[in-house]
Amino acid sequence: METTQDFSSQKFPKQERLTSKKTIEELFSKGSSVFVYPFRLLYLPKPFGSSHLPSHPQVLFSVSKKHFKKAVDRNLIKRRMREAYRLNKRELLQAIPTHQLPASVALIYIAKEKIDFATLQKKLKTIWLRLVNNA
RNA sequence: AAAGCAAGCCGUCUUAUCGCUGCUCUGCUCCGGCAGAGGAGAGGAAAGUCCGGGCAACACAGAGCAUCGUACUUCCUAACGGGAAGGCAUUCUGGCAACGGAAUGACAGAUAGUGCCACAGAAAAUUACCGCCUUUGUAAUGAGUACUGAUUAAUGCAUAAUGACUACCUAAAAAUAUUCAUUUAUCAUUCUUUAUUAUUCAUUAUAAAAGUAAGGGUGAAAAGGUGCGGUAAGAGCGCACCGCCUGGCUGGCGACAGGCAGGGCAUAGGUAAACCUUACGAGUUGAAAGACCAAAUAGGCUGGCAUAGCAAUGGUUAGUGAUUAAUAAAUAAUGAGUAGUCAUUAAUGUUUCUUCAUUAGUCAUUGCUAAAGGGCUGCUCGCUCUUGGCCAGCGGGUAGGUUGAUGGAGUGCAGCUGUGAAGCUGUGCCUAGAUAAAUGAUAAGACCUUUUGCAAAAAAGGACAGAACCCGGCUUACAGGCUUGCUUUUUAU
RNA sequence: GGCCUCAUAGUUCAAUGGAUAGAAUAGAAGUUUCCUAAACUUUUGAUAUGGGUUCGAUUCCCGUUGAGGCUA
Which nucleotide is nearest to A71 (CA to C1')? Predict the structure, then answer.
């Protein structure tokens, strides 16, 4: 496991995604949030004294069905968000010291219209910096 | 060639980099996975969830009722509210017509019953009302006839009066008769006008009775339609044609069509996407169903150890009592003896032993109970707080995982059967399988569309839309392109 | 994923299949007032949408769109 500490990897395997229903519920009920248009970011810090150190947070991307009725649009935005995170993962993770990394992060798309990939990337970086300052 | 309509088909492509999810192979592994290579990875509607089926769990003797759905016929199909072929109706259209063509149709039943049909209208379904017609009564008006009265005029083998003549008689006269005249009066007839009465006819009004359903401004809809006859007036009352109903016949598997005979038209208005009737069908719930594996945790269960209580049995220990036997010392008595001392006895004491009883403890076994301690009030009940252990096994089961779950009522081609939907045979082909949920992002190019532009080129954009167990349909959305057929127009030969 | 309900003026609601679709309130204009408020008068709907049944549809039936709810 320690060998996968390599930040240079642009991979985004399943361990780095948030899949557990329970932790999602916990995140949405207890997590603190940061808001930068067009995102809202929910995060949950690591449980105190947990022995095993995850090298990366578990991330979840979400788009509201109310704002985007069609599944095609939701899929497109989620894919763009995922790519933005994946391609900038190294930079983003190095910005935060390892012990301060949140355990789980939910990235929620708030805007009501589609945004192109470049600006999406920029906004993702700014909201991540806000998260760093808050933590 | 262009345009329109219809049917069918396709529905962006290529490369690079970085990724995502399965599959196969190889290697490594701490057996959880990891690495490398190869190859695969959204649709015609994947959508809506409107029908139907598979599959699964539960329910279920059978039948009926209720509820829901379907509704021209025959066929196709696993099934269907889908499809095919037909029938009928409506609309449009070609044609002089016969006869076609196209589109649409929730297209069973209103002659089983109930309900509703606003406004208008006589009336919305029983027929009633008005009206028409006939008869009768009454009234009025008009006409005719008759009677009566009045009136006017005319007429008269009428009457009377007067006069004359004649006859008779006579003195004369009167009277009588005849004839004539007169015109007065009366009467009669006719006519004019008028009145009354009666009657007849007509009209009107009114009342009653009978007939009738042709007509009655309306309305979406008015009790078969049109014509002729017929009638007091009318009426299928009769007849012709059309429509309707009934029953045979012929053709068709059938829906139905054709024709014949009869009924004379009624229990016949519309509405069943009003209730309803008839026939047929439907058990309920959905893959987040269901099946399996299974951490952690927990007053689940079982066993063992430990704990607390109660009861019984047995063992053991101790005490007490009784009993039996033994017994040293002390005490008492007796004897020997001055005494010490010695001996004997004692229903006395002590100790030990046997047996029995009882009490207490402890142990074991068995059975039962789980509680115990504290607080609130002294007790009971009640409430409340603390403790309620350790080990092993088992069961259910949470997180999680596996499965269900992707090759099938699949599809291209050919042949055969069938009008066709479709079926059968042969042969070839195909292969998404995610699970907070992959199938992408970026860059470059090609293709297409739009805008600007003479052009070159530039800019913007790439339809509708994303599998979630699977399949058959239906519905809805859709830029653009291709093929075929039909129609129209233009050009050329 | 599955199931159910609803849609009427700007807003909140009403309506038996029967016709100009009402009520309250808001908005606009006017009257009143020195001005405002209050009061009074007038005005504002393609009944979400497209079809069908019916003589006639807000109402009945079908399709589409949107909103809300239930289930796990």
Answer: B466
CA–CA dist A112, A65 (Å, integer): 10
Which two structure tokens, joined as six digits, stand for A37? 């248009």
Strand B, nucleotides < 7 Å from a protein CB: these are 18-21, 34, 42, 399-401, 435-442, 465-467
Residue linked to tokens 């939910």:
A106
CA distances from A1 to A18, A53, A93, A99 (A): 18, 10, 17, 17
**Which domains does chain A show, CATH number per domain?**
2-6+14-134 (3.30.230.10)
Q: What is the pTM of this model?
A: 0.67
Helix ranges (DSSP H) in A51-88: 71-87
Task: Tell me the pLDDT tens digit for each residue of A55-82.
Answer: 677 888 888 777 777 888 888 888 888 8
Which nucleotide is closest to the Cα of A70 by its C1'?
B465
A34 Cβ within 7 A of any nucleic strand B atom: no
ipTM of the complex: 0.77
3-state secondary structure of A12: coil
